[in-house]
Amino acid sequence: MPPSPVGNLERWRSQLRARYFRLGAALGVLLFLTALWRITQGEWNIPLSRVFELLSPFLPAAESETAEALVIRAVRLPRFFAAAGAGGLLAVSGVVLQGLLANPLAEPYTLGIAAGAAFGGAVGFFFDRLAVTPTAFAGALGSLALVNLIARKNGGSGAYLVLAGIVANAVLSAGVTLLKAVADDKLGAIVLWLMGSFSGASPAAARLVWLGAAITLVPAWLYGRRLDAVSLGEGQGEMLGVDEKKLRRRLLCAASLGTAMSVSSFGIIGFVGLVAPHVLRLLIGPSHRPLLVFSFLAGALLTALADGAAQRLGELPVGVITALIGGPFFCWILVKRK
User: Fold this and answer.
1) R_g of the chain computed on alpha carbons
2) Cα separation, 323 vs 110, whole angstroms
3) How many CB atoms are located within 10 Å of the residue 329 CB?
4) Rounded to an integer, what distance in angstroms lies between the CA atom of residue 272 and that of residue 266?
5) Closest residue by Cα to residue 109 from 121, 100, 117, 101
């Protein structure tokens, strides 16, 4: 007797849940091992048993002021959490943008959002350090609006969207260079900020990127079913009863704000939002709710590892490492789509 459709559906769901569990466990273990590597290794190697002692909430007050404790608590732990939070945030932003625009090449870097945030943030340095995040957000939104306008004038296809993003990237990068040329005494701060490094990550900056990740991830997960409908293509969501304009407005603002919070703290880190979602989509399919969660974990893992490699190579900007990984990946997607 052939199996019933209901039985096949239940078997498929059971296999999918098992795949989610295995993937979640693998990413969780890898992220935990990466955290141990990042916290124990460095110019001053501290044994793992000693690290656990120093992280204990019951550590005596006198011992919490030692050099070892300060290195672990004030330097390495914030750095790891900052890298993981920023990577997860950028990966989630990539999933949101690719779903909303139905374009696999969309991510904060290729659409010019990161460059817009960098330009806005650089303008903020001319006023006050506290103005960097709001001006970065304004720059990200302005860049996104400009890219959409250019693409819409040419039909609004995905290819034009990416081309418009490349143009916006070039123009805004030139704008940042111009700002650096006239920055005078602020030049050092702007250059250091744009290098895209986690070497000076503070606990406050780490909390800021995790807040940005929550601002992007939570609404995207809540609108996950609608995101599935919109990602089918232009107008497909409307046919299924989804208000596409409202959804795009809300989630694009959330993704832009999240990206601006990452860029304003740690500079431009490209391609994380491209690599992590595409690899996860191959493993678990296009459904956005699980894709968002697993992409967050994969983006966190990728950026934490890239930051470790950047530190080992003499504190290179972490954006260099992610670009070396993401650039060829971007070309592979272009060739595959052709």
Assistant:
1) 21
2) 12
3) 14
4) 14
5) 117
- Looking up tokens 């991830």 gives 217
Which candidate, 320, 310, 338, places its Cα nearest to that of 201?
310
Place of tokens 């400009």: 146
Q: How does pLDDT run across 66-101, given as a tens digit for each residue?
A: 888 888 888 899 999 999 999 999 999 999 988 888
pLDDT, one tens digit per residue, over 240-278 is 888 887 888 788 888 888 887 888 788 878 788 888 898
d(CA 304, CA 319): 12
* Contact present, 165 and 111 (Cβ < 8 Å): yes
Tokens 């190579």 correspond to 313
Mention every residue, 6+ apart, whose C-beta is less than 8 A from residue 253.
Answer: 141
Q: Residue 137: name the closest of 257, 252, 253, 249 by CA.
A: 257
Mean local confidence (pLDDT), 32-49: 85
d(CA 323, CA 299): 14
CA-based nearest residue to 277, from 13, 60, 88, 81: 88
Can you spell out the DSSP letters for 239-293? HTT--HHHHHHHHHHHHHHHHHHHHHHH----SHHHHHHHHHHHHH-S-HHHHHH
Helical axes 288-312 vs 5-40, angle rounded to 10°: 20
pTM as predicted: 0.84
For the chain, the straight-line distance linking the first and the last C-alpha, in angstroms and rounded, comes to 44
All residues at 6 or more sequence positions from 323 whose CB lies less than 8 Å from its CB, including other chains: 270, 271
